[in-house]
Design brief:
358 residues, alpha/beta, seven-stranded mixed beta sheet, six-stranded parallel beta sheet, 17 strands, globular
Length: 358
């Protein structure tokens, strides 16, 4: 605590600052000053999201310079004068969206669809830094039994659960998860929690499929070596899957999702499209003739803000039904962020969840 106070007095912190697409620098910058309704969080761990790679390397943030990072947790270092119920030293998560609270979507509790939102890590400074200022209403207690490393992965787990909650799972369902990155591994675990008994994991990487098995997948398919459609048809006896969860964001898997879904089945799209998704007439007919329900999902929020997804994820971790630690493949200090993010975007190493420790 004395060290933190000295840093705050000196008004200097280390941060990864984005100056232009592909130009991420480690710099000393001023520590943000929390307003009367904010807290200052001393960041302990920050996850690198798949969306951070194109944001940092290709597309850029909404203005420059910006400190990226929206998956993070830490300890409260300072509180604003109007903040109550939170104290210096509290272990906390930070929900990164800053909704306007006034638009129609916010009034209905659909904060992820806010018309005028701000966002830590893309529209304003985020968690790839030693300190972040955030509204008190965005702060969630982090139980002592949940490590900071696990805490840094709660946000993507909540994103996954938000999508899962939009589906109607039934006990005994067969689920297919296309893509076994961090979101895919969360999807496998939540499908199991929701009652799926057969969970088919599909990826092009054997190491990720090994993780999928640890997460609870009952069948593994390497689509680089086997015909995924034929394998799924064989497993399901040509009926298809009750639930298909697409997390890869690949045009191939986005189309396959429709092909492997059974009559009156459900498809959840969690992966975003980076190219045009083209459906042949035959594939499109599947949607109509099979009366398939297609659901999109965005972000992790519901009413009351920030949403039951966040608290449910924490409870699942505490109860042991949601595993995070086995799937954290890499930890790097903050100063390595530019090098690590470059190498991740160039696929120079195989990874699942990568955490920056601060």
């Amino acid at each position: 605590i004395i060290h933190l106070e000295e840093q705050i007095m000196n008004n200097s912190m280390l941060a990864a600052v984005l100056h232009a697409p592909g130009d991420l620098r480690i710099e000393h910058v001023p520590i943000p000053k929390p307003s009367e309704n904010q807290v200052l969080v001393h960041v302990k761990a920050a996850g690198i999201c798949g969306s951070d790679l194109p944001r940092i390397m290709v597309n850029g943030t909404y203005h420059f310079p910006t400190i990226p990072g929206h998956e993070f947790c830490g300890e409260i270092a300072q509180t604003g004068t109007n903040v109550s119920g939170l104290s210096v030293g509290d272990r906390v998560l930070v929900a990164p969206i800053l909704p306007c609270g006034k638009c129609d979507s916010c009034q209905q509790g659909h904060y992820g669809q806010c018309d005028n939102y701000n966002y830590l890590g893309s529209r304003t400074d985020g968690g790839f830094a030693e300190y972040v200022a955030a509204p008190a209403e965005n702060i969630i207690d982090l139980p002592d039994s949940v490590t900071f490393l696990e805490g840094a992965a709660v946000e993507p787990a909540a994103v996954t659960l938000h999508g899962i909650m939009r589906l109607k799972f039934r006990a005994g369902d067969c689920a297919v998860v296309l893509g076994c990155g961090a979101i895919g591994l969360f999807a496998i675990q939540f499908a199991k929690i929701m009652g799926a008994t057969d969970i088919i994991a599909v990826d092009i990487n054997n190491e990720k499929l090994d993780f999928a098995k640890q997460a609870g997948a009952t069948h593994l398919i390497n689509s680089m070596k086997k015909d995924a459609l034929a394998e799924i048809n064989s497993i399901t006896k040509t009926a298809g899957a009750d639930v298909v969860i697409e997390t890869a964001g690949s045009n191939i898997t986005q189309v396959q999702s429709i092909q492997v879904c059974k009559k009156h089945g459900q498809i959840l799209y969690l992966g975003t499209a980076h190219k045009d998704v083209v459906l042949s007439p035959k594939v499109f007919e599947h949607i109509i003739r099979r009366e398939i329900t297609i659901t999109g999902s965005w972000n992790s929020y519901s009413a009351p803000f920030p949403g039951r997804e966040w608290f449910a994820v924490l409870r699942f971790i505490e109860q042991g039904s949601l595993k995070i630690s086995p799937f954290i493949t890499h930890q790097f200090p903050l100063k390595k962020a530019p090098e690590v993010i470059h190498d991740m975007s160039e696929r120079k190493f195989t990874y699942n969840k990568v955490i920056l420790t601060i």
